[in-house]
Amino acid sequence: MSTLVLDNGAYFAKIGYSHEKVSVIPNCQFRSKTSRLKTFTANQLDEIKDPSGLFYILPFQKGFLVNWDVQRKVWDHLFGKEMFKVDFADTNIVITEPYFNFSSIQESMNEILFEEYQFQSALRINAGSLSSHRYFHENNSELCCIVVDSGFSSTHIVPYCRGRKMKEGICRITVGGKLLTNHLKEIISYRQLHVMDETYVINQVKEDVCYVSQDFCKDMEIAQLKGEDNTVMREYVLPDFSSIKKGFCKPREEMNFTGKYKTGDQILRLTNERFAVPEMLFHPSDIGIQEMGIPEALVNSINNMPEEMQPHFYKNIVLTGGNTLFPGYRDRVYKEVRALAPVEYEVSVVLPQNPICYPWEGGKLLAENPDFEEMVVTREDYEENGHYVCEEKFDV
Could you list the residue ranges that cross the membrane (predicted)? Predict the structure, then answer.
């Protein structure tokens, strides 16, 4: 019997059979400016010739799955003929869900997986639990780890001990990739060019040019300098989707420091936005969100743990999620946690090679675990006992 592992993120779904490779696919639908009536689903995004003014229809809001119509269409597409050709009667599914998920959402998910799709068996689990499973598999001498999962909607910090999550240490920061992109859209619209409708393009800009500053004040001083002394400034050529299909950063030697451009060139000049936007992960209060940044929340979470376990958490900090891909992210987390942690404790921060697919890899390992059959709820079980059996079995 095959097992399908689906890390059902708020922006990307990471999906694949446990014996195959993972596919990373947008977990949403799109409407384009040019063909308003047609809706594109998941990886059909590639078919849109002009993604300017692209409108997103997301199944998730604030980190929770609320739009089942959209989610069903995405799943129909993923499980259907052109993607994974799922034979439901002969397939188990491992699927992720958010921490502290609402029971009404859990019940709807059970119903859809067992009654509509009729999977043979299912396991609902948090993405962080899969990440910890992968980490303990690779570092089997370790007893504890703390997972920082910084994704699209929010950032979660969750301590694990011997594979069990410690609920009293879970922290949620309501800053994720979506907020960063929206903030960058606002800054650019205010300073240079109206881009409030260009989520797709500005998300690309964010991924291409933003980085995490190691010394915010020093970078801020450099960003105010004129001409070539301003080493922070970058020029970003926006796509026009006819001759330029994808935006790109100009090489430093080709940059124009006079500020005068040829007509027709659509160029963004980015200075302090490059590091001020990711800074919100470390100081949410910069934009009025009264919450701790990631390093403080990490230390706070570890301080809620029994004292004898604390040194083990400090030396096993695991970073996952898309926001960890900002250059300088890992170094900044290490630097700030090191400054806040007791001197005698060793601090180690691990950034996996592929932090986006790390939980999926954990799900793949879990599916090969000899105890896997004990963890799942079978369709028979569900038909006999209903939601109650899922509540009992899944620790989410």
Answer: none
